[in-house]
Amino acid sequence: MFGIQTGNVMFALSVLPLLLCAHIPFAHAEQFEPGALIIPMDTDYQDYGMLKAYGLVYEFLMNDIQVHWAILEYKSIGDVDFTASARDFVTHSVITEHGYRGGAFLVAARDSFIAEAVVDEWLLSFPVTVVHEATAAFAAPVVGVFDTPPRIAMLATGQQSIAREYLTAAWIPNSLGGPWTDLDALTMTEAAGGYTDHSDGALFDASGEPLYDHLIVMHWSIDDPIEDEVVAEIREFLQYRTSMFAACQAAHYLENHVMGQFLSSGGLVVGSEVEIVDYMNSDFYPAQMDGPFEGVSGANKSYSLNPEGGIYHVEDCVMITGAGTPPGTDDVFLAGFIDGECPPSYEGDCATGVGVVTYLGGHQYSTNLPISAYPESQGVRLFLNSIFRLPPTSLSGVTGDMPRPISVEQNYPNPFNPQTVIAFNLLVRASVSLRVFDVAGHLVDVLIDEESVSAGRSEIVWSGRDMTGRPVPSGTYFYRLTAGGSSETRRMVLVK
Fold first, then answer.
1. Which residues form the domain of 473?
2. DSSP state of 129
3. Strands 243-247 and 356-360
4. Distance, CA of 493 to CA of 79 (rounded, Å)
5. Nearest residue to 315 (alpha-carbon basis) of 289, 280, 277, 359
6. Per-residue pLDDT tens digits for 15-39
7. Residue 78: Cβ-neighbour burial (10 angstroms; 0-12, 13-18, 19+)
8. Do the strands 37-39 and 105-107 form a parallel or antiparallel pair, or are they unpaired?
9. 232 and 365 share a domain?
10. 403-415 burial by CB neighbour count: b if 16+ within 10 A, else e?
11. What is the per-residue pLDDT for 16?
């Protein structure tokens, strides 16, 4: 499992009639080596590929490649998350000490060998996506590490075609790896289940555990007597490490339903159309973006607290609101833990079994690019952010105090001639394969072939020969260890 380190607790009091919980540091400064891949999420480099960048992240996860999300704590909109020098993956243009903004995604150098093959294939279809390769070591504030793609459910409340358009713009597929259709949306009857309890609908398996990580609810243009049970099922779904995105009327309906009120007590009323906005709590993962935001029209363009006693469980849940208005008035984008169980920026123990709820005002945002010329496309970015919940439901721990299931050491000596030692560590006994590849990705030698290896540290010697026993020429090689569903790749150099 994955743990996120936390710093010292800092408390603040609010003079507003709202609850304000502690804002606790949650990012972990992690070192990345040359060769790490950077997926920029700022308009300097990703202006045209912003939406497809999320699809590339999803593709990495589909190929068992860990993805790190770098977000600076306490930052304001437009602040730099980290600085690094790199080169463009395609053009090899040199990037010197660029300040990456907007929550860039990273792949560690140990995984770059396999990741580069995924990038090559991705760029054949989506060349607008920009990828950088680090040319020097750098540190970045990592808030979470994903190693499995999120399982996405969509509720058929009407207007789900909007969500399909957003997912297609990023090229995030359905559970079968294909394009989204109406058949992928759960009907209200399916979501309600058999009424025996609140976890027997289609969001859950036979044992009452969630089948999905993320739920999408686009509007709520239905009038069905079973909707009370559907809201109850959603509430139960959000008692786990899950997330939900609701847009326009859906957010208004859920916050005013007796079984809802996920982010507020007393509910919400329809807010005003907002042209100029203020940004708040920009270090929470759903709020990641770069450049100005522009709202769109709709039945619920923004939300305000019910004037008759409405109050947010946690004030920090407001990310975008009308310029000059306090939280609770004309709020366009909100995100927080259900029932205010954790402050939005805290991802420690209290967040392990708590769902994240995200609301966005407005009917339908644009998917046009570049995003700097179409600020109304930022709403799609916020939608896509919400899918990658932190901490994810299933992940490997590479930060904090939680050990990784495997770790591979750098071979020694390196460079080497004629032989070198490769060492690795297993948390538990596992079936292991250890293979050597050349720079073209061709298999050179199999050092361990699906053998059971005990927990602890192991060593194996590679003599610089291929599978037929012939010496291989000087050059760069890669060794990849796979065990227990996890894998790591490192680089070594043979010099004769």
1. 406-494
2. -
3. parallel
4. 39
5. 280
6. 333 333 333 335 678 999 999 999 9
7. middle
8. antiparallel
9. yes
10. ebbbbbeebeeee
11. 32
Give yes or no: residues 206 and 80 share one domain: no
- Read off the DSSP letter of residue 439: T
Q: What is the CATH number of the domain that holds 438?
A: 2.60.40.4070
217-246 as b/e: b if 16+ CB within 10 A: bbbbeeeeebbebbbbbbbbbbbbbbbbbb
- CA–CA dist 310, 331 (Å, integer): 13
| Last-in-domain residue among 95, 115, 146 | 146
What is the domain count for the chain?
Answer: 3
SS3 334: strand
CATH number for the domain harbouring residue 292: 3.40.50
Average pLDDT for consecutive 10-residue bins of the chain (496 residues)? Answer: 28 31 55 96 98 96 91 94 97 97 96 90 95 97 89 89 95 81 84 87 90 91 76 93 93 90 92 94 94 93 92 89 94 92 56 82 96 97 93 42 67 92 87 87 90 89 95 90 77 89
What is the residue-wise DSSP string for 366-411? ---S-TTT-GGGHHHHHHHHHHS-SS-SS----STTPPPSEEEPPP
Encode pLDDT of 60-113 as tens digits: 998 889 999 999 989 999 999 999 999 999 999 999 999 999 999 999 998 988
Instruction: Please name the residue that has the structure tokens 């009370």.
Output: 228
Q: What is the pTM of this model?
A: 0.77
